[in-house]
Amino acid sequence: MTRLARDQYTATAFSRRPRERPITDLLLLLLILPMTGCATYSDKLANVPWEIEARCAEVRKAIYDTHECEGAGSLLCNMQLGIIEHRCANYTQSNAVLSRADAIAEEQYTIRGSRELQKIILNPGTAPYRGSAYEWVYISYLKALNYLGEARHASNGSERQRALEEARVEIRRVDIKLRDIEARKGTYKEAASRSEDTFGQMFRLYNGLQGNWVDNATLEYREDAYIRYLSGVVYEMLGEWDDARVAYQKAATLYDEGYTNQYDLDEDMAEQAWFDTVRIMRRGGYGDEWKRISRTHLSPARQRELAELDPDAAQLIVIEHFGRVPPTGELNLLLSVIPQYQQLVLRPVPTGSMEDQRAQLEWFFMVYADTGILKWIRKYNHGGIQAVARSPVEKTIFARPAWHLLTELKVPQAIQTVGGVRVAVPYKKPLPDSVGSSSLRIDGAEVATLDRAESVAHLAQATQLRRSGLEIWSSVAGATTKLAACSAPTPDDWLIACSLVASALARAETRNWALLPYTVRLKRVFLDPGNHQAELVALDRGGQKLDREYTSLDLDSGDIKVWSVFTTMFPTATTPPRSAGAAPVQSTSAGYAPPAPAPAAAGAPPSPAPPAQHPRQRRTSSNAGRAFGSILKAVTESLDDVLEKGLR
Amino acid sequence: MISVAFLAGLWSCTTVRTQRVSTDETIDLTDKWNDTDSRLVADEMIDDMLTFPWIQQHQQETGEPRPTVILQRIYNRSHEHIAVDTFINDLKRAMIRSGKVAFVVGGEERKEVRGERKDQELYAREGSQAEMGQEEGADFALSGSIDSIVDQVGGKRVTFYQVDLKLIDMTSNREAWNGQKKIKKVQTRSRFGL
In chain A, what residues touch B9 (CB-CB under 8 Å)? Predict the structure, then answer.
């Protein structure tokens, strides 16, 4: 069919149905109404209490009630149970369910065409959850923590040794996973050199013109510096110095080469990893190399600390898992059609609270909106300056190559009949700059502030961003496939019903390992042998206490103890911490927002001032998160107007 | 209609079926350490250990008919949680059955036996009590390690296991025997499937 004939065909096809129908407004209303009622995965988890340790049975039951533990949700169910059992100190049970999760994750390496089709035709929630690379790594991480927990509570030396060896097995397994990821995704160095070469620069320029802001190369999960650091700890506990040195050095290099910047972590972690590398090298076998590394990578204060350090001092490594990874929300989009230009157009339909709506519009603008100069020119040619002005809240799909097929399947006609079809994609809210800090007290004296070693929240956000392109294409494909199924010559009423069903079935993939911590903070301190009382105090960004954990330690000379704790971040600014047995706090869509500073209660002891920042933490560098934040802020301000007008 | 039939085809029926098979049959479902690997290691080690001249040398040097062996740690440095006891027990059983070697217990097991003997002193009838100070000292100590090397990219994974066992002469610290078994596996998974 020639282009002219095709255009004539299209014009004829659309002339059959009047564009303005009195029923259209009502249909649109029917279409939009269910959007507010769609339960996301995080809504389902709203009944899972935050204080898992105090309410193990209740939390376990909530997971069984909300997950298909033998079906599509088996991986997710086992991962969630794994973290719950770990926090309830049922280490053996936790390892059993996590082993099951590991086996399922491995089985799901193969992408099944039938399942992918099932996701598109029905919705993603009906297909088995496959998980993300970082979630697979965290299965082995948690298993290693379980064995470290067993080692800490072992009644004799041989039991402790056995548990440590099992922890090493998990460290080996996680090493295999990370090496596989790195082999496929490339190292930070390779990524940096690719982005600097001519092709990379041209590619960036083209992407900029197209308005593709999401650069997958900078979002890629290539390695895990924190997991490498923990590997070093396990090897050191086993007295395997060479492996410990390799792991610490790998962690330090990764933190320096890009991990710190990519996930907005504390720069002190890189220095800590170098410190431990040098500490191990100093034991012998490396000549003067350790002195060179010490001069290059350690501040004068840390060099002095190293010089004065007793090699047989006892060590305490505090690992704090703070809060929960932010939930994934559902962003509703209205798919409409402009037949004369052979375009499909997606517009966001924000729902929920004002905060949610703003976040949805921001995500849409950042990830999907028509923002490139090339798109603006095409839009200008088709619809003038008004079309360009709509760009921040529109994604245009130039469907000319597939238009003939779509028209034959009557997809554009079906969309036009009802005024639009709902599609849904996942989105993440912006992450705050800071979620507070935690301080460590030993025998009543504050000794250190913990360093942010890992941000699972950033890992999850980056993963979601990387998937955003695929998500929108599969959502649109799902909608058009459902409409194409109604393509038989049927009356309009059937087409309308079919379109409504397609809209109602649209769901975004909002499942994720939601009980993982928001961030992991770490501190290693050297102590004299003997009994010590350790206390960890988690503070919000205003310096208010969020949670507090204690432990008693008996340390011998040369001992290395790992104290792994989970601290709670309460969901909203106004929600006070609950006592055990109180009604569960409902996790709101703003579930990850840290509480705002509240005035100190009368008579209560004054809150400690926020800990002073280490000079290395005062960064003004252009880290991805901050730059992103400032762009979003600017965009938000311009979107406010659009939003307010839209809501009026 | 075709769409409905296609959708229906997405769900498949599964049934559970179990059958008994010989314990010698090799069934590799994955590349993980399994019962066949354990059996192969035990068989290799038994043959090697019993044909090595350390038993005769010990008999010539000491005049004792059977050397006594104590089992020390077998370190698992691999990437798999391996039940080391399975092939060690096979090994012990074969050695004891040959009548050429005797084993004495060590570690936690020995502590428990000693505790039991103490209890007997207090509670058991005179004459039926096990005597204190009559334990047999070990002539040799058996120890070893399991190591692995894994190389994986995407769907292809090469796994190499190496099991090393050694017998140390408790008097001279001489290594009287050293056994080794290597196993290499390749697993390929396709990225896409139906």
Answer: 114
Q: List the single residue in A113, A169, A180 with the smallest CB-CB distance to B78.
A: A169
Tens of pLDDT, residues A40-66: 888 888 878 888 998 999 999 999 988
Which of B11, B82, B149, B150 to mutate to test binding with chain A, by most A CBs within 10 Å of its CB?
Answer: B150
Checking if the pLDDT of A135 tops 90, the result is yes
φ, ψ (nearest 5 deg) of residue A259: -65, -40
Half-sphere exposure of A572 (CA within 13 A, CB side): 9
**Which residues fall within 8 angstroms of residue A71, CB to CB, at 6 or more apart?**
A128
| Nearest C-alpha in B relative to A168 | B77
Question: pLDDT over 70 for what percent of chain A?
Answer: 78
Residue B155: count of CB within 10 angstroms of its CB: 14
At residue B18, the pLDDT reads 85
The answer to whether A113 contacts B193, with C-beta atoms less than 8 Å apart, is: yes
For CA atoms A156, A158, A159, A164, the dihedral sign is positive
Nearest residue of A to residue B84, measured between CA atoms: A162
* Separation of CA A507 from chain center: 19
Tokens of residue A468, six digits: 């955003």
Q: Do residue B192 and residue A113 have CB atoms under 8 angstroms apart?
A: yes
Q: Residue A234 CB: number of other CB atoms within 10 A?
A: 26
Tell me how many residue pairs between chain A and chain B have CB atoms under 8 A apart. 60
Whole-number Å distance between alpha carbons of A266 and A453: 7
Q: In this complex, which of B9, B79, B194 lies closest to A173 when CB atoms are compared?
A: B79
What ipTM was estimated for this complex?
0.70
* β strands within chain B, DSSP E: 68-77, 102-104, 140-153, 156-169, 175-188, 192-193
Quote the tokens at residue A612: 């002073």
The two three-digit tokens of residue B184, written as one number: 């290499």
Nearest-neighbour CA in chain A from B184: distance (Å): 16
Strands (E), A273-328: 314-322
| Chain A residues within an 8 Å CB radius of B4 | none
pLDDT tier at A213 (50, 70, 90 boundaries)? low
Average pLDDT over residues A254-273: 95
Mean pLDDT of A259-272: 95
Closest among A301, A328, A260, A270 to A591, alpha carbons compared:
A328
Nearest-by-CA chain A residue for B8: A118
Residue A30 has a pLDDT of 56
pTM of the entire structure? 0.80
The H or E element that residue B102 is part of is strand B102-104
Least confident stretch, A96-100, A133-137, A156-160, B142-146: A156-160
What pLDDT digit, counting tens, does each position of A138-160 carry?
Answer: 999 999 999 999 999 998 888 99
- For residue range A73-120, what is the model confidence (pLDDT) as tens digits? 999 999 999 999 999 999 999 999 999 999 999 888 888 888 888 888
A238 touches chain B (CB under 8 A): no
How far from A163 is each of A67, A107, A152, A237, B169, CA to CA, in Å?
31, 27, 9, 11, 29
Q: Touching check for A114 and chain B: CB below 8 Å?
A: yes
Note whether B76 contacts A165, CB cutoff 8 Å.
yes
pLDDT (0 to 100) of residue B19:
87
Determine contact, residues A86/A149, Cβ cutoff 8 Å. yes
What whole-number distance in Å separates Cα of residue A648 and Cα of residue A300? 60
Spatial distance between the Cα atoms of B13 and B9, rounded to a whole number of angstroms: 10
**How far is the CA of A442 from the CAs of A16, A342, A450, A531, A532, in angstroms?**
80, 68, 13, 10, 7
Q: What is the mean pLDDT of residues A480-504?
A: 74
A173 min Cα distance to partner chain B (Å) = 5
Q: Which of B16, B110, B152, B162 to mutate to test the interface with A (most CBs of A within 10 A)?
A: B152
Q: Residue A243: which residues within 8 A CB-CB, separation 6 or more? A: A231, A232, A235
pLDDT, tens digit, for every residue of A422-432?
A: 999 999 998 88
